[in-house]
């Protein structure tokens, strides 16, 4: 199985910087692209940034030029470097690992791999 664990969340002030880390373990060969998602209470979970297995990145417009997604394959880690954070960035941030098609699903109700999330709160 694949396990993803996020760390680095916390309470920060607007304009501050924060770095999130996702550590993958288990059958890491089952992970293709990886991404960070976030979810505010009462809202749908949204994609924030994505990085392909080859290193190609994608960012949503609201965080482009402020956040940077990166990874270290030798350490099985995914990072989200956040700068100039804003109150609207407040959310639970989740690490996502795209499942390679030949690998088993993590559970009956999940298609990809997910961490438990880490809370990021930005005060004004």
Task: Describe the protein.
- With 124 residues, the chain is an all-beta fold.
- It has no helices and eleven strands.
- The strands form two sheets. Strands 2, 4, 5, 6, 9, 10 and 11 form a seven-stranded mixed beta sheet that branches.
- Strand 5 and strand 6 form a beta hairpin.
- 27% of the residues are buried.
Please outline what is shown here.
It is built from no helices and eleven strands. The chain has strands spanning 2-7, 10-13, 18-26, 31-39, 46-51, 57-59, 67-72, 77-82, 91-99, 113-114, 118-123. The model has no long low-confidence stretch (mean pLDDT 97).
Order of helices and strands: EEEEEEEEEEE
Number of helices: 0
Q: Which outline best applies?
A: globular
* Strand content range: over 45%
Profile the largest sheet: 7 strands, mixed
- Low-pLDDT residue intervals, each spanning 5 or more residues: none
Question: Can you give the mean pLDDT?
Answer: 97
Q: Using only CA atoms, what is the Rg?
A: 14 Å
What structural class should be given to the helix and strand makeup? mainly beta
**Which percent bin holds the helix content?**
under 10%
Strand tally is 11
First-to-last CA distance: 40 Å
Q: Key terms for this structure?
A:
124 residues; mainly beta; 11 strands
């Amino acid at each position: 199985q694949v396990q993803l664990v996020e760390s680095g969340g916390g309470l920060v002030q607007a304009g501050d910087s924060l770095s999130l880390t996702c550590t993958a373990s288990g059958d890491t060969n089952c992970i293709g692209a990886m991404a960070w998602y976030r979810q505010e209470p009462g809202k749908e979970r949204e994609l924030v940034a994505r990085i392909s297995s080859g290193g190609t990145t994608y960012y949503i417009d609201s965080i482009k030029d402020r956040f940077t997604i990166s990874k270290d394959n030798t350490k099985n880690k995914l990072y989200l470097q956040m700068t100039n954070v804003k109150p609207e960035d407040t959310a639970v941030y989740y690490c996502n690992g795209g499942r390679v098609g030949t690998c088993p699903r993590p559970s009956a109700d999940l298609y990809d791999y997910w961490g438990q999330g880490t809370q990021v709160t930005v005060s004004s």
